Amino acid sequence: MSNNTTTATQDLPPKGGYSTIHYERRLPKKGPSGLAMFAMCGGIMAYGWYKVYKGLDERRELDRENAWSRIHLIPMLIAEADRDEYRRKAAAVEREREIMKDVPGWEAGKSVYNGKRYVPDVIANVPLHQQPGFKKD
Amino acid sequence: MAIPGYKHFKSEDWVDPTPPPADLPHVDEVGSSGAPLKSASFFIGSVCQEYNEDFMLCKNEDRDPKHCLAEGRKVTRCAIDVLEKIQANCATEFRTHWQCLDNKNQSFNKCRAPEKEYNACLFKALGWKKNIPDAPANKPQIHERIPLTK
């Protein structure tokens, strides 16, 4: 029996085996991490809100200053207006007395209301308009 | 004189030239325009506090103008007194400040530089200090802060 069969050379791994396959991604690292970006955004917003509240505080204090400036002047302005109103009212009562002197039992300057509470005049007491025979042209 | 467009509405028709009743004690009116009053307001408020509060309490009793004439005269005299004292001691600073207020829409915020000199002069001459009531005590008051915006 002749042995003319060739010995088959089987494809085998190299001695020592194949080197390991690097299958994981090896991308260069880009930019800060998500947590860092989140923290940065939070920081920017916190600074912004801090400035907003500073601005609101300043505006509130400016409004307070303006309001108190007016409050301090109110008594003086009311006092002046009161004197003028009193003077005009007294003059109007005098004119009324003069105009109604022929009517018996007429009380000049009597309130039209049946009470003691002060009610300011709704219609301005104007000397010219109260003259007898006055005609507005 | 009439407002343009209101020729039928003459302001002279509404003036009552009658003098006040003779039994009323005479008092000068303040006769100041808005900007000087605003400039002096905090000093009127602090110096005349007693008279002002007395007057407002009186007004609270009765709104009738003749009820509080005596208190009102004190208020007016005190305000005139404050303005005259300011005028006598710090005339230039006062003028600079109220003219600034006049030009800047009566906004305190736009006139901090003249106000600083004005307040310093009044504190030196009369010992008056601007104080805004009800402002938070843990922070400097608004006129002593550095403004956030120019």
From TrEMBL, chain A:
The chain crosses the membrane at residues 33-50. It is found in: Mitochondrion inner membrane. Keywords: Coiled coil, Electron transport, Membrane, Mitochondrion, Mitochondrion inner membrane, Respiratory chain, Transmembrane, Transmembrane helix, Transport. Its main location: mitochondrion. Pfam families: GRIM-19. Residues 76-103 form a coiled coil. It is a single-pass membrane protein. Complex I functions in the transfer of electrons from NADH to the respiratory chain. Accessory subunit of the mitochondrial membrane respiratory chain NADH dehydrogenase (Complex I), that is believed not to be involved in catalysis. This is NADH dehydrogenase [ubiquinone] 1 alpha subcomplex subunit 13. It comes from Linderina pennispora.
TrEMBL record, chain B:
Accessory subunit of the mitochondrial membrane respiratory chain NADH dehydrogenase (Complex I), that is believed not to be involved in catalysis. Complex I functions in the transfer of electrons from NADH to the respiratory chain. The immediate electron acceptor for the enzyme is believed to be ubiquinone. One of its GO terms (biological process) is mitochondrial electron transport, NADH to ubiquinone. Belongs to the complex I NDUFA8 subunit family. The keyword RNA-binding does not apply. It is found in: Mitochondrion inner membrane. Its main location: mitochondrion. It comes from Linderina pennispora. GO terms for cellular component: mitochondrial inner membrane. Keywords: Disulfide bond, Electron transport, Membrane, Mitochondrion, Mitochondrion inner membrane, Repeat, Respiratory chain, Transport. PANTHER family: NADH DEHYDROGENASE [UBIQUINONE] 1 ALPHA SUBCOMPLEX SUBUNIT 8, NADH-UBIQUINONE OXIDOREDUCTASE. This is NADH-ubiquinone oxidoreductase. PROSITE patterns: CHCH.
